[in-house]
Amino acid sequence: MTELSTRKTSIVAFVLLYVAYCISYVDRAAISLALAQIGKDFNLQASDLGIVISAFFLGYAAMQVPGGWLSDRFGSKYVVIVTIVMWSLFTAFTSVAWSLTSLIAIRFIFGIAEGGFPPASIRAIAEVFKKDSRPKMSALLLSSNYAGSMMAPLIMAPLIVWLGWRHAFNTIGIAGIVFAVIYFVFVPYLGRTDAAATAAKAESRTPMRELMRNPLLWQLMLVWFGLSCVNKGLDSWMPLYLLQQRGLDLKTVGVVAPIPFVMATFATAIGGWVMTTYFAEREKYLLIGSSALTGIFLYAMYKAETIPVLIVYQSLVYFFKSFVLASVIALPTKLLRDDQIGSGVGMVNLGGQSAGFVAPAIMGFIVTGTGSFDTAFGFLVAMTALSVVVAATINTAQPRLAPKPA
């Protein structure tokens, strides 16, 4: 497959991928903002709502590897389009849910539909940019994660207030399908890049079992699992916490909720630079410090007596946990062989996706069982302690794995 020959087309493709990522985060965040109304309509407990949230991440995690394989096999364009159409349809289908079971099923399939997009989008970057530009452009594309998270409350909160949650889901679902048509029109089909080279290298790829014997990857996976519990837990439950425990209305939540994501965007952008500039061969200290500070500010956030102070502490939580994200994803690219980096990063990110399934459900059961968020936030603080302990065992001053014999 050939790369795009013009800079203009590459930029168009990148911009549309960036917008698609933002749409995906708006669509997935919509459920958290609508939890209060959904719970009231269906008479659901917090534990039920936690399962609804976790169902998405279970499907999302399950589709990561198949999505990458499909993109390699058929090219990124059609995988991107199909994923956008499918997740948009199931976003809209959320509006016709009639029971807890139907809601869980719809959100699980929504997760499967959206789960193929991240690997397909990175594959698309490889198709439209030259090799030396791909790392930079891939990182820039991923900054859309927090941009979308910032946009979600600003878009969804007013829609839910004005239209109700069912019509709000219909609206953003239709918008996604319209965007898929735009992507189809403006991004050409590029087929499969380097198909011959890929086939030639197939036999020489690192066996997965070799990576699974590498303790560093398991350590990074656990570190990111702990901090991602904080990430997914707060993303899922903070809107409802602010509504029910802090007495805010949905419009106000829509205004204050994006603020921490500004800090997260900035921290993720500079995290790799901070790690390589100030913590070379000492990366574990950045992981330890950032994880510990995340836990400290998380505790301070929950104990804050006013909303402005709470938002300041939550912003600091997001700032330092984003340093951990930048580090755990960057370290495999530094310490592993080139033929191991993709699979290694995938293993590490599996920890984050697993946390997305585990944390919201556990917090829901805790809130239902105790009647408050006290123990639920204590669980998140404990997860930061797990990350600190595991990070302390990491040795990043180690050579790359030896190359395989010819």
TrEMBL record:
Coiled coil: none annotated. It holds the Pfam family MFS_1. This is MFS transporter. It is a multi-pass membrane protein. The keyword Coiled coil does not apply. PROSITE patterns: MFS (PS50850). One of its GO terms (cellular component) is membrane. Residues 13-399 form the Major facilitator superfamily (MFS) profile domain. It comes from the Bacteria. It is found in: Membrane. Keywords: Membrane, Transmembrane, Transmembrane helix. PANTHER family: FI19708P1-RELATED, SOLUTE CARRIER FAMILY 17. The chain crosses the membrane at residues 12-31, 51-71, 78-98, 104-126, 146-165, 171-191, 254-273, 285-304, 316-336, 348-369, 375-394. GO terms for molecular function: transmembrane transporter activity.
